[in-house]
Amino acid sequence: MGSEDDRLRKPSQQSTTMRTKLKILLLIVSTNIISIYLFSGAVLNINWPENAPRIHLWDNERLLRELNLTRYKLSHAQSSLSDLESKCSTSNALLESLLTELGRVHGDKAVSDELNGWPDELFGELKLAAGPHKLPLGFTSNIGSDELYPTMGMGCRNFQPEVIEYMTYEPGQECPSDDVFAQRLMLKGCEPLPRRRCKPKSPKNYVEPDAVPASLWKIPPDSSIIWDPYTCKNYTCLVNRGKAKGSYDCKDCFDLRGREKVRWLIENGKLDFSIDNVLKSKPAGTIRIGLDIGGGTGSFAARMRERNITIVTSSMNFDGPFNNFIASRGLVPLHISIAHRLPFVDGVLDIVHSMHVLSNWIPDTMFEFALYDIYRVLRPGGLFWLDHFFCLGNQLNSTYVPVFDKIGFKKVRWHAGRKLDRGIEKNEWYISALLEKPMY
Ligand SMILES: *[C@@H]1O[C@H](CO)[C@@H](O)[C@H](O)[C@H]1NC(C)=O
Ligand SMILES: *[C@@H]1O[C@H](CO)[C@@H](O)[C@H](O)[C@H]1NC(C)=O
Ligand SMILES: *[C@@H]1O[C@H](CO)[C@@H](O)[C@H](O)[C@H]1NC(C)=O
Ligand SMILES: *[C@@H]1O[C@H](CO)[C@@H](O)[C@H](O)[C@H]1NC(C)=O
Predict the structure, then answer these.
(1) pLDDT for residue 46
(2) Which of 308, 324, 371, 388 is most buried per CB count within 10 Å?
(3) Which residues of the chain have pLDDT under 50?
(4) How far is the CA of 85 from the centre of ligand 1 (A)?
(5) InterPro entries recorded for this chain (predicted)?
(6) What structural domains does the chain harbor?
(7) pLDDT score recorded for residue 96
(8) CA 191 – CA 180 distance, rounded (Å)
C-alpha cells in the first residue's frame, strides 16, 4: 500500500537512471586515471635495461640477474596495480554511498515533486488523466493559474498498479466491465476515479422509464441495466434477497412492498422518527432540499418527493444496482463514499438524513470530518436527522456524544436505545437524533 514515507524511500526510475549515468561517468574517469597512472610510469616504471633486447646468450649470469630484476620489478608493479585497484574500488564505494546519501537528502525529493507523488512515472491515458493541461487562453483569474489538473482522488497514488490496470482501455471505445474493481478502488481512496474517455456498456432492449409518481414505487424492468457486476441477474432475485440466506448490504431494500414501504411513516416515540413529525419541527414548507447519506435504494428520497421535497441520495453499488435503482425511481443518485467531501457549497441544504451508514466502523477522524461537513453544507436552521447510529455502549458517552456536542448542533430530539437483536449482553446501541444547525 505504501505510506508517503515508503514512497519517498523507494528509489524511483528516474533517480536510478541518474545514478547509473553518474556511475558510468565515474568509471570512465577512474579508468582514465589508471591509464594515465600506468603510462606516466609514476610507480610502474619498469625501466627496461638499455641492453634488454640485446641478450647475450653466453652471459648467463647477467641474463639471470636481469631476469631476476625484471621479475622483481614486474611483481612490484603487479602489487602496485592491485593496491591501486583496491583504492579505486574503495573510493568508488565511498562515492556511491555519498551519491545515495545526497539523493536521499536532495534528489529524491526533487524527483517525487516531478512525479507529483506517484511512485513511478505515468504513461498514456493515466498521464493525461493526471494532468496538468495548459489553458488555451492562458492565465485566468477565476482559477488563479494557467493550467488545470483533472480531478482525481489523491489516494489513487497509493495504488498505482491497480490504477494503471483501471486506466488501460481504448479511448472512445466501450469501457472494460469492471464495476466491482472500480468501486473498490474508489472506496480505498481513489475517489474520484480517473476514467473519463470510454463508453459504458449499454443494456439491450432498454425501454423508456416510467413517469413519476408511478416510478417511485415500481420495480424497473430487468432490461434497464447491465447485470455483470452482481450476484443477482434480475430484480426478482434482488427483491427476494431479503428472505434468502446470506449477508448482503441493505438486504431487503429492493423489496418495495416489504419493510421499505413503511419506513419513516410511523413514529414509535423511540428510535423511529416519522418524516411528518420531523418536518413539523420547522415552519411548513421550509424544508425543501436535502441529502440522504447512504440511502440504499432511495426510499427516503421517494417519501420526501411525495412531500415535494427534493432529496439527493448517496449510495454504493454493493452487490446490487442501488444507484441505478434510485435513478429508475426518478430520484437523483450520487455515487460518492463517506470519505468524500460533500459536493455542495457551504450553507445550502435544508436537511441531511443518514441511516445506518454512519456508525462505529468509520475511523474517528473521518467520522468527525463527515459530521463537520454535514454541518457545513446545512443552512442555518437546517436539520441533521441521524437515524439509527450504531455503536457499543462503552463508546456512546466516551466517544460519540462528545463529538456531537463538539460540532455545535442543537439537539431537537435525542434517543439512545439498545439494539437487542443480537442479545443484550452485546451492549449494542442505536442513537436517533434530530439536530439543528443554530440560526446564529
Ligand atoms: C634475485 O633477487 C632477489 C631479490 O632482489 C635476491 O634475493 C635473489 O638472490 C636473486 N636471485 C638471483 C639468482 O640473483
Ligand atoms: C432471476 O434470476 C434467478 C437467478 O439469479 C433465476 O433463477 C430466475 O429464473 C430469474 N428469474 C427471471 C424472471 O428471470
Ligand atoms: C406537491 O406539489 C404539487 C404541485 O405543486 C401539489 O399539487 C401537491 O399538493 C404538493 N404535495 C404536497 C404533499 O405538498
Ligand atoms: C450516557 O450518559 C447519560 C447521561 O449522562 C446516561 O444517562 C446514560 O446512561 C449513559 N449511557 C451509557 C450507555 O453509558
Answers:
(1) 52
(2) 371
(3) 1-14, 41-44, 55
(4) 28
(5) Methyltransf_11, Prob_Methyltransferase, SAM-dependent_MTases_sf
(6) 88-187 (no CATH), 214-436 (3.40.50.150)
(7) 76
(8) 14
The three three-digit cell numbers of residue 288, written as one number: 425543501
Q: What is the pLDDT of residue 13?
A: 46
| Cα–chain center distance at 149 | 16
Q: For residue 393, give the ligand 4 atom closest to its CA.
A: 13
Question: Which of 231, 233, 254 has most ligand 2 atoms within 8 Å of CB, for mutation?
Answer: 233
Q: For 222-233, what is each residue's pLDDT tens digit? A: 999 999 999 999
Is the shortest distance between the CB of 72 and ligand 1 below 6 Å?
A: yes
Residues 6+ apart with CB under 8 A from 392: 360, 426, 427, 428, 429
What's the CA gap between 52 and 59, in Å, rounded? 12
HSE value, Cβ hemisphere, 13 Å, CA-based, for 358: 28
Q: Is 393 in the pocket of ligand 4 (CB under 6 A)?
A: yes
Instruction: Give the pLDDT score at 9.
Output: 39
Q: Whose CA is nearest to atom 14 of ligand 3?
A: 307
Phi, psi of 413 (to 5 degrees): -140, 150
Predicted local distance difference test score (pLDDT) of residue 129:
96
Ligand 1 centroid to residue 38 C-alpha, Å: 26
Distance CA 272, CA 259 (A): 13
Give pTM, 2 decimals: 0.74
Check pocket membership of 396 for ligand 4, CB cut-off 6 A.
yes
Report how far ligand 3's centroid is from the alpha carbon of 346 (Å): 28
Grid cell locating 221: 424492468
How many Å lie between the centroid of ligand 1 and the Cα of residue 37?
28
